[in-house]
Here is the input.
Amino acid sequence: MRATVFADKHMKIGEIHPNIYGSFIEHLGRAVYEGIYEPGHPAADKDGFRRDVIELIKELGVTIVRYPGGNFVSGYDWRDGIGKERKTRLDLAWASIESNEFGTDEFMKWCKQAGVAPMLAVNMGTGTPKDALELLEYCNHPSGTYYSDLRRKNGSEQPYGVKYWCIGNEMDGDWQICGLDADSYGRKAMQTARMLRWADAKRADEEGALQLVICGSCSCDMPSYPEWDRKVLEHTYEEANLLSMHRYYGYDASSKNPLEDFLGSADNMSGFIDAVKSTIHYVRTLKRSRHNVYISFDEWNIWSQSAPRTAPNWIKAPHLLEDVYTLRDALVFGGLMNALLNHSDVVKCACLAQLVNVIAPIMTEKGGKVLRQSTFYPFRYAAKYGRGETVRTIVDCEKFENRHGTANTLNVSVTHDAQSRTVCVFACNYAQSAQDVALELRSFGDLSCAEFVQMSGNDLSAANTFDAPDKVTPQACDRVAVRDGKANIRLAPLSWNFLRFTY
Ligand code: AHR
Here is the structure.
């Protein structure tokens, strides 16, 4: 099988915002307790933060972490998780017990240790605009008010300066605690956003202003999509900086063509982004506005939906959503990353959902080891090297049919970082046979190949386990020669590939 990929440095899509390498920690299952926080674990520091987990998060290259939910946030009172007396509560979102030992102050401290920026979600379910304002006051106001002084009393003299604020979570979902229709949410989000802006004393477009994320559709399968997005934007446009998107994909063994349907996920994600981008553009035009709203794809991942969601009820930190990721998952995951990169003009933040134990690239044993799942690797390479800008690619290859439509067997993104003089090619071969690909990169100058790694294998269901942690890892391939800006590469059947060139 033969294919050609042409990329030109002048055909820029957009600058890659570092925040597209974000992730997400929710009070759900063992993400917080036994995940990032486990006092008494041999690797825990004095605050109970697992250093072994922090080390892997640093290796993964995560830039920003969304917290504390997710569905959890729509029933959360942030006051329960601060100060000396913590309140144990029922968490209705996940039918669990929440001890609130870990709350806002612990999260802020943890972010510092992990070298990530915080992104806080506020409760738009049971919560009010006033609750959101008071959390902002607690976090960001220097001193001299009730909540800022309370933060100081609780040990943090300096304000946290949290910049990214999600105004609720998946408010279009009927599973959401006190979910709303689009107009009711739009009005509530607008009132909340205004109050946060007044407290921040900066307009939406001002340098250093809060970045407010409005809830967009939580999937393109929702019956209210894309009208939900239009309506909430019409209410909030001038105060919004980003509109959220969420989407998970799973392998469905019962479908007629399970593999093809799963491999088509990246194209579905691309189409979803294109439609939301157009909706934003429509509202901007309608409002005769000069203000830009971007996309925060703040929940995306592979999620099989087969691991337990709620049972057993009413215990603390149950084993929920502990998906085991396979080579097959890593291939689709790589395509989803390409979809984000290929929309770098509009996707300015993205959070892999989630980070530890819950549909996560990192797993932990209670009191024991830590593990990199197969999906850890495509993320790690993109976060480390997918910097600068994405350029358009012209791909000539064979196609395959799937439930989302017709897709290329070669799924690619090409990034260019002028600062480090690096060009990267992220390529998924979705064909069941090898592909010989001619990479045409002559506009970048005199390139030489610094690295070529590949994830492939005969067993698509292979996964890493605590006993065999390196079953699915990238393997180094021979570097390829570049002549007159052209490189010929061979991609193994059903493989994820990363090539790095320098000039
Ligand atoms: O990430 C798991 C859950 O998926 C989140 O809590 C929710 O926002 C989404 O439905």
